[in-house]
Amino acid sequence: LSPGAKMGCFTFIKVMMILFNLAIFLSGGTLLGVGIWVKVDGESFLNIFGALSSSVLQVVNVSYLLIVIGSILLVIGFLGCYGAQKESKCLLMMFFSVVLIIFIAEVAAAVVALVYTGLAETLLTGLVTPLLKEKYGVDKSFTHIWNVTMTEVHCCGLNNYTDFNDSYWYETYSSYPRQCCNMLEPCNSTLAAQSHVQGCFKQILEEIRTNAGVAGGVAAGIGALEIAAMAVSMYLYCRLDEK
């Protein structure tokens, strides 16, 4: 290619890099704002999005997750956009490094999720079950979110109804939540055992497996975008040496 063609190609890729990362930056800001909203007023968020949000609200802490993801996207978007606009090798290398670390972490998380599902369930049980025992029936927002989750997903607790043993709710009402007994009341241990209502973790896991093709396609698309972003940042980085 002639010097002019090379410069035109460089300029085009630089502009695309700026626009792409500007979109990432704005998306990050949006997610960060939503995360803060969920943290401050999670009940109204649930009322607006309903079942769409209830299926995952208690497997992960959505507010913190959105805040973390939004912050990461803000950093990535800023590094990529400003680095390309200013033609800064330092910022472009930082952008490449951050995206590479995220890509490696995503691959590692996917492998762990596929191979160590039981370990993930054990870890979640250790984190979520104590919260259920302490906060269900005490914290209004927490209780409401769990009630909607269990009703919409047709599940009970994280693992099953035994998650509520020795809980504030059981000690106060001598009963399990009615979702543990297919909405029948009073929900005692005998009826809960006969109802065979699965825990929310198992139900959500089934949903993920049912939609594994879609989830895999989305993950592959994100991975491809990350690889493309790293390739473009390296191209700009190397071309700056020639300018």
Protein model, in words:
- The protein has 243 residues and is mainly alpha-helical.
- The protein has helices spanning 3-40, 42-49, 51-54, 62-86, 89-115, 117-135, 140-153, 168-173, 189-195, 200-210, 212-242.
- It has 2 domains: 1-86; 104-242, no CATH class.
- Helix 1 packs across helix 2 and helix 1 runs antiparallel to helix 4 (62-86).
- The radius of gyration is 23 Å and the shape is elongated.
- The two termini are 15 Å apart.
Element string (H = helix, E = strand): HHHHHHHHHHH
Q: Class by helix and strand content?
A: mainly alpha
Strand content: under 5%
Q: Outline, from the CA principal axes?
A: elongated
Rg, alpha carbons: 23 Å
Total strands: 0
Topology summary:
Blueprint: H1 3-40, H2 42-49, H3 51-54, H4 62-86, H5 89-115, H6 117-135, H7 140-153, H8 168-173, H9 189-195, H10 200-210, H11 212-242
Helix pairs in contact: 1-2, 1-4, 1-11, 4-5, 5-11
